[in-house]
Amino acid sequence: MKMILRLAALTGLLALAACTSFPHTEKAVAKAEPAAPKLDIQAWHTDGGARVLFVHSDALPMLDVRLVMDAGSARDGGTPGLASMTNALLGEGANGLSVDDIARGFEDQGANFSASSYRDMGIIGLRTLSDPQYRDPVVDLFCRVIGQPDFPQSSLDRIRAQMMQGLRMNQQVPGPQVGDAFQATLFGAHPYAHPSDGTLKSLPTIERKQLTDFYQRYYAAGNAVIALVGDIDRQQAEALANRISQALPAGPKAPALPRAKPLAERQVKHLNFPSSQTHILIGNQATWRGNPDHVALFVGNQILGGGGFASILTDEVRQKRGYVYGITSAFQPMAAGGPFTVQLQTANKNADQALTLTLNLIRQFINDGPTEAQLQAAKTSILGSFALGTADNSDILGQLGAIGFYDLPLDYLQQFNAAVQKVTADDIRRAFQRTVNPDDLAIVSIGPKAPHIIPDTPQDSDGKTGQQHP
Fold it and tell me: Where is the composition biased (Polar residues) (predicted)?
């Protein structure tokens, strides 16, 4: 215990000694700004066409690897759930190895293998010790798993049953149902429209050959980003990336998806469900990765509904009037689109008032934008939390994967930080007016009865709707 205390004290002294620029006066504190996270990102392509992003980090004797493929549910074609099923079966068998063989092979070396799937991307992850004694056999196994997956029929049947059971369970709760209906309403015939986990109709039709074909096409080296973070040097990183790239199927990058288009008029949809709460989703297709208005929309959304209890929607709809249990808003940019979404849950008796007030607040924010005080508070919150976005290797790995997959500049984090500092209230107002039309927002709900917008809602002297507590 004494040794631990000495180490803690020494660590604290070293940290203080290093803070030569720490602001010690009120004036210095006022001028201090959170530093943008600076990453020495090195980038190149393998011979197989994979894009590699590497950051050396010797903070821990670890190596983190993430493969990001353009292999999300947007590539399902006419078989919803195909991408998710393919990803879920990775690690279930490879070149004669069983799922137990693979699991033991990673665990015996203290390594971790993972796989996950989203609308835009399929992800394969590996964490291992960076010491070659442990790293090399783990990488050998990893390359075998990703290069020669078996997609065994027994695993397909088991995981299909699990996924279908999950879908049946979702039918017993309102949240997943209204989410799927909202996605379908916003995106229509676009590849983003269908449920990523498939449907009870589509999952039984998926056959093993579809999985192998999907993997060969969308998990190809030319369709991959390889993100590496850890205690290895550039030469070792290049050798590792080449091994991984060579293990993957050969093939090109997937063609770009068509850009999703926003709804041109309001759409209203209600699902009947015997619940004590009404769930409401409001929104429209609004943005995409690379949108020049991204920073203004991000900061504005923090003020409107993304900033927790400090946001306008939470303050007005929940805190002041008690209409909802929770309310949030978000922009979710993806490669070919991304919705603006407001979601709230309310007691059935308050659904009309909550919906009306929320729509009025959205319209008011689009028309007027934020106040200067709201803007400065949001900037302080964003810049303070953003500096923690590269606090450990896992955070860095996530940033690298996104930068590589969405073809963002290598200094994207610094650019974003600087843009947040410069954005103005007028920038936010104009960006919202270009992006969100309050008259075209879809309203999708689930509960015992459809909520209605209350006409001729009275206004307070400050312009906000004037309903009272129920």
Answer: 458-470
